[in-house]
Design brief:
Layout (H helix, E strand, L loop, with lengths): L6 E5 L11 H15 L3 E7 L10 H10 L4 E4 L4 E6 L2 E6 L4 H12 L3 E4 L4 H8 L4 E6 L4 H4 L8 E4 L2 H5 L6 E4 L18 E4 L7 H10 L5 E4 L15 E4 L6 H6 L2 E4 L9 H8 L4 E4 L4 H5 L5 E2 L5 H10 L2 H16 L6 H6 L6
Parallel strand pairs: 1-2, 1-6, 2-5, 6-7, 7-8, 8-9, 10-11, 10-13, 11-12, 13-14, 14-15
Antiparallel strand pairs: 3-4, 4-5
Helix pairs in contact: 3-4, 7-11, 9-12
Length: about 350
């Protein structure tokens, strides 16, 4: 008796693997790769024209594929690139063609599941649910993320308890923490001080400016996130600005403390768990899903704390206290290193 072929389709208007901007991109890439590794035919429909830009990322995508030796087919006439990434068949298209290509894929592949999220995803839900089961993935509590519920998916994959508390609708809500892998990177010693990723206003860059000035004796490493803000920090002698990197492991392994002073209600920042997996504890604000990700009250600070309050809390964290926190958070983060498909099967999102 042969096993029936299983197929899953990911579709959204953002860029595909292995290119990323933030946690949602990485989470979807890792889940798609797990489906592929488990023997599912896995198609990832995405766009090289991200919703936040008027320009195509095609040139930089092709350059990266060339640099990493990934074979691809590029159709200039169709403005499309096709390649396979860790077993996942990826098609990057113009945004305007995604809906029609989803309809073609549904007819040709008869997938058991479609997963969609973010900008304009309610349209994809409506197109797909007449033919198959659809899961909308809630990566945050923003209107952009919650929009997928307007299409009334069969299931909502909810990325944290915090998001679950904000989610309403007739669909089945499934608490589904993001997939994680251990970042590659090791260091014999932690010879660097404070680390922050994505220093933009929504993530607390204004407070960060004041904090840097408050603590001239401490060194800050800032890593580019959504966009390049390096020019804003060139005046500080105690700042090193790192361009966007695909490998954060060595940065996590060499620093002593990660700072997450977000002003927005982050759902479950994956940077916190990734850092914990390499023994880097986080000092984060009590806002949104940050406390849930940090997992230790001794590493949280009030959401309305001033730069002076942050400076005092950082200075109060001794080496011995950080060692204790490091062990606690590392063990907790390891529990999120788990296969995710059994969770989806148990929730009846996919066949067992």
């Amino acid at each position: 008796m042969t096993t029936p072929e299983r197929t899953v389709v990911f579709v959204w208007r953002r860029i595909p693997p292995p290119f990323f901007i933030g946690g949602a991109e990485v989470s979807q890439q890792l889940l798609a790769e797990e489906f592929a590794a488990a023997g599912w035919t896995t198609l990832y429909l995405a766009s090289h024209e991200p919703p936040w830009s008027e320009e195509s990322d095609m040139t930089s995508m092709l350059r990266h594929l060339d640099d990493t030796g990934v074979p691809y087919a590029h159709s200039g006439a169709k403005d499309e690139v096709t390649y396979t990434w860790n077993g996942v068949l990826v098609r990057a298209l113009p945004r305007e063609r995604l809906a029609s290509e989803l309809e073609r894929s549904l007819e040709a592949l008869s997938p058991q599941l479609v997963i969609t999220s973010q900008e304009g995803s309610a349209e994809f839900v409506r197109l797909a649910r007449a033919r198959t089961k659809v899961a909308g993935w809630l990566h945050s509590v923003s209107r952009t993320s919650m929009h997928v519920l307007d299409g009334e998916p069969d299931h909502a994959l909810v990325t944290s308890q915090f998001v679950l508390g904000r989610t309403q609708g007739p669909q089945n809500n499934v608490l589904f923490y993001p997939p994680f892998t251990v970042p590659t990177g090791r260091s014999l010693r932690r010879d660097r001080d404070l680390l922050m990723v994505n220093p933009v206003p929504a993530k607390g860059s204004e407070l960060l400016h004041r904090l840097i000035a408050q603590m001239p004796e401490r060194h800050f490493t800032l890593v580019e996130g959504w966009w390049d803000t390096s020019v804003e920090f060139t005046c500080y002698p105690n700042v090193t600005y790192v361009p966007r990197t695909y490998n954060m492991g060595s940065l996590y392994a060499r620093h002593k403390l990660l700072l997450v002073p977000s002003l927005v209600e982050d759902a479950f920042p994956r940077v916190i768990v990734e850092a914990e997996l390499l023994g880097l504890p986080t000092l984060g604000s009590r806002r949104g899903g940050i406390p849930e990700a940090v997992g230790h009250p001794g590493l949280l600070i009030d959401a309305d704390a001033t730069a002076e309050g942050w400076a005092a809390r950082i200075r109060a964290l001794t080496h011995s206290e950080l060692d204790v926190r490091r062990q606690h958070t590392h063990h907790r983060a390891e529990r999120l290193l788990r296969p995710c498909l059994p969770e989806l099967a148990a929730a009846r999102v996919i066949p067992s």
